[in-house]
């Protein structure tokens, strides 16, 4: 318990308060409770939280169409949902999945990193850091049910989970592809990958910006299971049951022991990391790369 308190992420309350203010300012309701068990089922515009069959597990569905990009509004809503679940002692595990067909998450929202001002970049990056810290250090068992494409920030999100299940579909590619956009994965993205697949495999994957198809993702250890698309959710719940058979306190302390040093690296230099990001992303050459990439995404359609 003492460890859990020590590991609380600084500024979380401030970030969430900011999110609620922003929601209120936009004149929309933040939360809508629904169903017979309204206290446990809640939704924001972009995140749907449903209790799993047994009640100890919640299913968080990302619904920021078309591609679940991690916009600032999405991040703030997600963080509020996660905090609610962390604070509700009834929940011990969360399955994170997508409500958008064929895409788990397209990663960071490129529109938040292109053509904005330094203040916006700083606010956005703080929210991205917060997402990673809150997920990576979560006391809950997290299972990522990856039912579609999972590049860059989407992959980072999945990597924070305790287990990853990937759908066996040609669209379900996963990896940190930042170099393909002409940008660089931050050190804590890299650390999370190294902790999962090891140094050599990470070096190759990061430099080449590899997006692994299911069989290769399984082989390199980026995901733990590959199953047909219609079995992703049931597999996630079955794996969850296995993890929930372990006493929480022992599992949580072990998870902290494995992850705390990695998280601390960022916690100790959060402000410097924000400044790094702002100056990197503001460079003309980086803005140009992002512009070209965004144009390519648009042209893909036409
Ligand atoms: C040395 C110091 C280092 C300091 C660190 C500094 C910098 C590093 C910073 C950040 C790291 C970055 C992390 C990221 O996550 S960047 C995002 C990377 N994401 C991608 O590359 C995915 C791009 N998207 C796709 O490949 C495809 O969209 C898809 C996910 C495979 C889905 O394909 P589908 O065919 O279904 O959809 P469309 O491609 O038609 O897209 C629909 C619609 O969505 C827009 N869109 C797609 N992805 C994004 C995105 N990430 N952000 C914003 N918008 C996105 C796309 O343009 C289409 O828009 P339209 O208006 O045309 O409908």
UniProtKB/TrEMBL annotation:
Its main location: mitochondrion. Keywords: Acetylation, Fatty acid metabolism, Isomerase, Lipid metabolism, Mitochondrion, Transit peptide. Transmembrane segments: none annotated. GO terms for biological process: fatty acid beta-oxidation. GO terms for cellular component: mitochondrial matrix. It is found in: Mitochondrion matrix. Coiled coil: none annotated. It catalyses: (3Z)-dodecenoyl-CoA = (2E)-dodecenoyl-CoA; (3Z)-decenoyl-CoA = (2E)-decenoyl-CoA; (3Z)-octenoyl-CoA = (2E)-octenoyl-CoA; (3Z)-hexenoyl-CoA = (2E)-hexenoyl-CoA. Its EC number is 5.3.3.8. It is an enzyme of class 5 (isomerase). It comes from the Eukaryota. Pathway: Lipid metabolism; fatty acid beta-oxidation. Gene3D superfamilies: 2-enoyl-CoA Hydratase, Chain A, domain 1, 6.10.250.170. One of its GO terms (molecular function) is delta(3)-delta(2)-enoyl-CoA isomerase activity. Homotrimer. Belongs to the enoyl-CoA hydratase/isomerase family. Key enzyme of fatty acid beta-oxidation. Able to isomerize both 3-cis (3Z) and 3-trans (3E) double bonds into the 2-trans (2E) form in a range of enoyl-CoA species, with a preference for (3Z)-enoyl-CoAs over (3E)-enoyl-CoAs. The catalytic efficiency of this enzyme is not affected by the fatty acyl chain length. This is Enoyl-CoA delta isomerase 1, mitochondrial. It comes from Otolemur garnettii.
């Amino acid at each position: 318990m003492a460890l859990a308190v020590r590991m609380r992420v600084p500024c979380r309350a401030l970030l969430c308060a900011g999110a609620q203010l922003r929601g209120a300012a936009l004149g929309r309701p933040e939360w809508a409770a629904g169903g017979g068990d309204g206290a446990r089922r809640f939704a924001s515009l972009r995140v749907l939280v449903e209790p799993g069959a047994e009640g100890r597990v919640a299913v968080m569905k990302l619904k920021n169409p078309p591609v679940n990009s991690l916009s600032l509004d999405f991040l703030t809503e997600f963080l509020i949902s996660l905090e609610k679940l962390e604070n509700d002692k009834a929940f011990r595990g969360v399955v994170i999945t997508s409500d958008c067909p064929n895409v788990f998450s397209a990663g960071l929202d490129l529109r938040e990193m292109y053509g904005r001002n330094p203040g916006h970049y700083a606010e956005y990056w703080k929210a991205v850091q917060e997402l990673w810290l809150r997920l990576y250090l979560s006391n809950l068992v997290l299972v990522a049910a990856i039912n579609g494409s999972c590049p860059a920030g989407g992959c980072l999100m999945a990597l924070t989970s305790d287990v990853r299940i990937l759908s066996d579909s040609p669209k379900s590619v996963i990896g940190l592809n930042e170099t393909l956009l002409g940008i660089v994965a931050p050190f804590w993205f890299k650390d999370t990958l190294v902790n999962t697949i090891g140094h050599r495999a990470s070096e190759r994957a990061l430099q080449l910006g590899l997006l692994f198809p299911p069989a290769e993702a399984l082989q390199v250890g980026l995901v733990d299971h590959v199953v047909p698309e219609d079995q992703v959710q049931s597999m996630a719940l079955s794996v969850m049951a296995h993890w929930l058979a372990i006493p929480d306190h022992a599992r949580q302390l072990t998870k902290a022991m494995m992850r705390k040093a990695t998280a601390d690296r960022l916690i100790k230099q959060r402000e410097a990391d924000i400044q790094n990001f702002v100056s990197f992303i503001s460079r003309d050459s980086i803005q140009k790369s992002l512009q070209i990439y965004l144009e390519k995404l648009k042209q893909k359609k036409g």
